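Below is the data:
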Amino acid sequence: MKQLLVALAAAVIFFSCKSNADNAAAIESAKKATIDSMNNVSSIKQQVVDSMNNLKKHRHNTSNAAVTPGYADAEMNSPAPAAPAPAAPAKKKGWKGWSHTAKGAVVGAGAGAITGAIVNKDRLKGAAIGTLIGAGVGAGTGAIVDHKKKKQGQ
């Protein structure tokens, strides 16, 4: 019986160590993929900046050519670099991208959960009820604000 327990313990330890090694390898590959992705984004941003600088320089050279007749520049005669395809408009990050309805629901749920837990003796039940009521009231208030802003054309 003791031999069986020792063998079982050894097997558990062996498999848990192997699992950690696999997890470490997966984490490292994920880190590498993230860094590669960030480098790609950085290089694309640099290409956009370079193309904007070339356009700016090209416009400046074009305005000088109009003032000075006979002015010719090799860069002015070369075609402008192709601009990258326009991306979809960037969504606002954080709270700014949320509607007032969503913000109200989240804030109301939090406030309702805290209040319900404080007021009710059964804290879990009170927090659950407070969350539901607070989220409903907050979403309703946010919807009113959204409706007013939509009416105003903002």
